[in-house]
């Protein structure tokens, strides 16, 4: 399992769903499943939304 996963997100809100998919894909590649996936995806969603909003 890699220590990190890196990807760029455009500065537009319409790209937030893309970031969510990338987070879910990385978690799946690392073998992470279940409720943890939902929690991490929600946190990432909030961070990316706030970043592109402000």
Describe the structure in brief.
The protein is built from two helices and no strands. With 54 residues, the chain is an all-alpha fold. Helix 1 runs antiparallel to helix 2.
Keywords:
2 helices; 54 residues; single chain; mainly alpha
Protein architecture, described:
The protein has about 55 residues and is mostly helical. About 60% of the residues lie in helices and about 0% in strands. The chain contains 2 helices and no strands. The chain has helices at about 15-30, 35-54. Helix 1 packs antiparallel against helix 2. The longest helix is centred in the last third of the chain and has 19 residues, at about 35-54. The radius of gyration is 11 Å and the shape is globular. The mean pLDDT is about 90.
Give the N-terminus to C-terminus distance in angstroms: 33 Å
Number of strands: 0
Structural class: mainly alpha
Helix content: 55-70%
Beta-strand proportion: under 5%
Topology:
Blueprint: H1 16-29, H2 35-53
């Amino acid at each position: 399992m890699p220590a990190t996963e890196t990807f760029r997100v455009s500065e537009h809100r319409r790209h937030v769903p893309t970031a969510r998919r990338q987070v879910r894909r990385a978690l799946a590649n690392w073998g992470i499943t279940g409720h943890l996936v939902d929690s991490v995806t929600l946190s990432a969603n909030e961070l990316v939304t706030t970043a592109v909003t402000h």
